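RECORD TYPE: inverse folding
INPUT: structure tokens
STRUCTURE:
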């Protein structure tokens, strides 16, 4: 969305430029500008616990005391709860009918059983309450050593993904809170989602936000290429940047004269294309006859002619790059 906003701002700025030499009927000027450049692969997935384990009671009986709640970080060997075996629970219930001294005697004589954390991690769910009767197979707690992001990547994009690659992640619950993650594992086994072959990619959040919860829907942007200050042109100005070199009429920012120049292009994100050589910041490329099929004069924002018919294969400004496709190639 940020890339598309930048593209529209440039288009609106240059669509009505005038005064440059060599300007023909219906010509537009697109000025070169510096900005941040990213090529990304988009994917969706969810937040999942890594190596989640269930904590079961050592004996059947009754939960006496809960010490640790959901969301707590615990250490291996830490006591999470206390419980009474089935026999101890019966003895204590009978003792209560005889008075506090009897209860105290059996509490001291017959010690409760601790529920122990088997590993370091976070308690992601607590499934019992105090006073609940449990069997030896009852899941008391779910423990995970950490939360990860698990994304489904289309097979056509898998070649752009590699280990330790950085990605930007948001979750639907908090779309404005982006966090960084790095690829930890790329699955070898594929799966079909809506008849599309996909591979699961696991990522480790670099700083796990406290707002993350298991099961949240995640939106992942894998960073394929990133440059902080790049000279660029909008892709529509170079006809979608299908080539690495183009010849174009350029109006110089310095002397306002127009001349034919060869412009060397680099990578494209589908909306913007990197300029390697041939023009400087502020120099404007003349774009002749840029208008939609079946549209009236007035540039790329002209209204359709009355009674005109839009061709099924009509040209559009920016070609394949006008939509800000995250899967944009290298512009070759």
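DESIGNED SEQUENCE:
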């Amino acid at each position: 969305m940020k890339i598309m906003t930048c593209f529209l701002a440039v288009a609106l700025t240059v669509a009505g430029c005038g005064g440059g030499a060599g300007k023909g009927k219906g010509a537009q000027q697109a000025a070169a500008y510096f900005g941040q450049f990213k090529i990304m692969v988009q994917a969706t997935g969810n937040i999942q616990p890594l190596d989640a384990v269930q904590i079961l009671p050592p004996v059947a009986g009754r939960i006496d005391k809960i010490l640790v709640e959901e969301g707590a970080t615990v250490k291996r060997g830490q006591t999470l709860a206390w419980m009474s075996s089935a026999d101890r629970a019966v003895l204590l219930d009978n003792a209560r009918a005889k008075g506090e001294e009897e209860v105290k005697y059996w509490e001291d004589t017959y010690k409760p059983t601790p529920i122990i954390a088997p590993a370091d991690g976070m308690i992601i769910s607590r499934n019992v309450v105090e006073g609940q009767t449990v069997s030896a197979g009852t899941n008391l707690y779910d423990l995970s050593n950490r939360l990860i992001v698990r994304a489904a990547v289309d097979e056509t994009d898998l070649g752009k993904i590699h280990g330790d690659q950085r990605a930007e992640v948001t979750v639907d619950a908090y779309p404005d809170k982006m966090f960084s993650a790095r690829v930890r594992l790329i699955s070898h086994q594929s799966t079909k989602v809506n008849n599309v072959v996909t591979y699961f990619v696991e990522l480790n959040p670099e700083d796990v936000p406290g707002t993350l919860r298991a099961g949240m829907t995640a939106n992942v942007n894998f960073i394929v290429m990133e440059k902080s200050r790049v000279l660029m042109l909008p892709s529509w100005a170079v006809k979608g940047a299908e080539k690495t070199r183009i010849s174009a009429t350029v109006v110089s920012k310095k002397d306002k004269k127009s001349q034919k120049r060869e412009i060397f292009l680099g990578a494209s994100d589908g909306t913007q294309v990197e300029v390697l050589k041939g023009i400087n910041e502020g120099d404007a490329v003349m774009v002749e006859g840029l208008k939609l099929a079946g549209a009236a004069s007035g540039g790329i924002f002209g209204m359709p002619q009355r009674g005109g018919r839009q061709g099924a294969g009509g040209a559009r400004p920016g070609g394949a790059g006008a939509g800000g496709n995250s899967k944009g190639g290298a512009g070759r």
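NOTES: The two ends are 24 Å apart (CA to CA).
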